[in-house]
Write a structure and sequence with these properties.
The structure is a homodimer. Chain A is mainly α. Chain A contains 6 helices and 2 strands; from the N terminus they run H-H-H-E-E-H-H-H. Helix content of chain A is about 55%, strand content about 5%. In chain A, strand 1 and strand 2 form a beta hairpin. Chain A binds a DNA duplex through helix 3.
Chain lengths: ~150, ~150
DNA sequence: ATAAATGGGACAAGTATTGTCATCTTCGGC
DNA sequence: GCCGAAGATGACAATACTTGTCCCATTTAT
């Protein structure tokens, strides 16, 4: 019941891309260094993100990766599901007949409700907002630190 | 990002106990048969549930398990957390410094919101309600079947 | 004592996670 | 056309987790 490192790294990388002007190409090695992500592992993940067409990759010299769509149209849910597959909180939500009683079991209904809400929240903010908010918050914190050190 | 079989089995067993009059003792082997749960595996799970004091077990002849508290005061969240540990959707919610930027990262905030809501829903109905609703729904379905077969 | 019930530890097969590494493919520039 | 830089891909591996199984210990009513 937890996000994997793959998902975590994918979100980090996508947030990074979302802070850049749309269309900017950046190299995987740079993202890797900046966010402490094992480079070869990140390559696997970016390949998945490219497969889901969240990013576009370009080989060769001066190549790299960039967002396929503007970050305003992307959410954390998109990113997580791109690398981890669709979210199913409970197995009985995936396959019929998993639980011998799923026809009438009301726990099933509860899990479904929880799943809907989870997805709703994970897609309630787009990556552009998240990236902007994060940059803003960071600036605030850094400024507060400078003031205290100056005082 | 999914409930384990352990959690699934635990919920099944607890729902079963919640359908019985409070205080009823039932044997693990019975629950196992009724819900298609491997008996020895279920023993491990019930031991955990007993450790969390959700159920009380009694050894020896005529022994078995029973709810420690009335099902009105228990939720699916209680059961899941008893056997799987506290729910943390994202690792950065567990330990400080997991993510190099968790101080200002707004994705962190989003995961936190999602986690709160998930827990809220999983504890929005108590086991007594869920058990009663399930029995009712089951009766409805069975009745509907009898009517169609009679017609 | 004995039979019936849970508890607990050792073990094991299978799968998922989290990588690493070597090699291949693609591309721009000379 | 060649070279070097970049991502793509597949094989491999260490580790942990999941999902059990099995055996024996412990408890308890009779």
């Amino acid at each position: 019941m937890q996000l994997t490192m793959t998902g975590e790294y994918a979100v980090r990388a996508m947030i990074h891309l979302s802070t850049l002007p749309f269309g900017t190409i950046i190299q995987i090695s740079e993202v890797s260094k900046e966010w402490n992500i094992p480079e070869n592992f990140l390559r696997k993940i970016t390949a998945q993100l490219a497969g889901a067409d969240l990013i576009t990759s370009q080989r060769g010299i001066n190549g790299g990766i960039r967002l396929s769509r503007p970050p305003e149209s992307l959410t954390v849910l998109d990113v997580v599901e791109a690398v981890e597959g669709k979210i199913f909180l409970n197995k009985c939500l995936i396959c019929d007949g998993f639980c011998p009683r799923d026809e009438w079991c009301q726990v099933h209904t509860l899990w479904e409700e929880a799943q809907v809400k989870l997805k709703e929240i994970l897609s309630s903010k787009n990556l552009a907002q998240l990236a902007a908010d994060t940059l803003k918050r960071r600036a605030e914190i850094l400024e507060a630190r400078q003031q205290t050190s100056a005082a």
